[in-house]
From TrEMBL:
It comes from the Eukaryota. It comes from Panagrellus redivivus (Microworm). This is TLC domain-containing protein. One of its GO terms (cellular component) is plasma membrane. Keywords: Membrane, Transmembrane, Transmembrane helix. One of its GO terms (biological process) is phospholipid homeostasis. The chain crosses the membrane at residues 34-51, 72-90, 132-151, 157-177, 198-220, 226-250. SMART domains: TLC. Its main location: membrane. It is found in: Membrane. It is a multi-pass membrane protein. Residues 62-270 form the TLC domain.
């Protein structure tokens, strides 16, 4: 492990030169990294098992699976959003002005926690849902895990990764919105659901699009200060997420009626199509 040299008067700024080298990928298998991932992964599997055994028992088929899956998604998003917001508020200067060099070992757990969740959710989807929507989510999960592994193994860009993790703030309202729709509570609590819809749009714009524009701009401006590999991760990865989120945003607007009936039919997707397992429960 490289010894950090103080930058800007802080021992948490590492001047190791790792930003000019390809990350040592094998470091993710070190006990300090793989053990937390396995622990968090087991916790998510246990939570999923309990959800499938004791929750949403009044529903059947694919709708029941989606409600249970979304419950775990919601739990992850609440925890990850809380961690990301806490980091961003307490380390705002690092996030905005020096997202490359700041590193503190304990903060890697937020990334390992989310990586474990994405691994769990990938297995869950492959087991219960093979649809055209699955490929999009698998691409999203792969990109997230890849970025987190890059950060942990290089010991660089930790504030940058936490800035990206702020997207989970929107995931809280996104998952809550879908849970209310599938469970039928959206028609029982109309005003609450409408508030969730507007909160979802607001947080989508702020914590997804604004964050992505900031990170893409930062990567382009700082191209000369890093290995081309990290630049490509920041730009190609950022553009990939921007495309995924743009498609998702259009589907949300369509589903919530903001684009009219024509928009609803053109942009909305049907996750019932192409299922390989489970009964449909319309």
């Amino acid at each position: 492990m490289a010894s950090p040299q103080a930058l800007n008067g802080s021992a948490f700024y590492e001047d190791t030169g790792n930003e000019f080298r390809i990350p040592p990928w094998a470091d993710i298998l070190k006990a300090e990294n793989i053990q937390p991932i396995l622990v968090y992964f087991v916790l998510f599997r246990m939570a999923s098992f309990l959800a499938k055994r004791y929750t949403w028992t009044e529903y059947t088929g694919f709708k029941q699976y989606r409600l249970r899956n979304l419950s775990i998604c919601f739990i992850h998003s609440v925890i990850s959003a809380t961690i990301a917001l806490t980091f961003s508020v307490t380390h705002l200067n690092e996030v905005l002005f020096n997202p490359m060099h700041w590193y503190q070992h304990c903060w890697r757990h937020g990334l390992l926690f989310s990586a474990a969740y994405f691994l769990h959710d990938t297995i869950d989807m492959l087991e219960f849902e093979l649809s055209k929507f699955t490929a999009e989510l698998l691409l999203h999960h792969f990109c997230c895990v890849f970025v987190f592994v890059v950060t942990v193994t290089s010991r660089k860009f930790l504030p940058y990764a936490y800035c990206a993790l702020l997207m989970e703030v929107n995931s809280v309202t996104l998952h809550l919105r879908t849970l209310m729709q599938l469970s039928g509570t959206s028609t029982q609590y109309i005003r609450t659901f409408r508030a969730v819809q507007y909160a979802n749009i607001f947080t989508f714009l702020v914590f997804r699009f604004c964050v992505q524009v900031f990170e893409l701009h930062w990567a382009i401006v700082n191209i000369s200060n890093m290995h081309v590999f990290f630049f490509l991760v920041g730009t190609i990865g950022g553009i990939t997420f921007l495309i995924i989120n743009s498609c998702l945003f259009l589907r949300i607007l369509a589903s919530d009626g903001f684009l009219g009936d024509a928009g609803r039919n053109a942009a909305a997707i049907n996750r019932w199509d192409g299922l390989s397992r489970g009964d449909r429960d319309d």
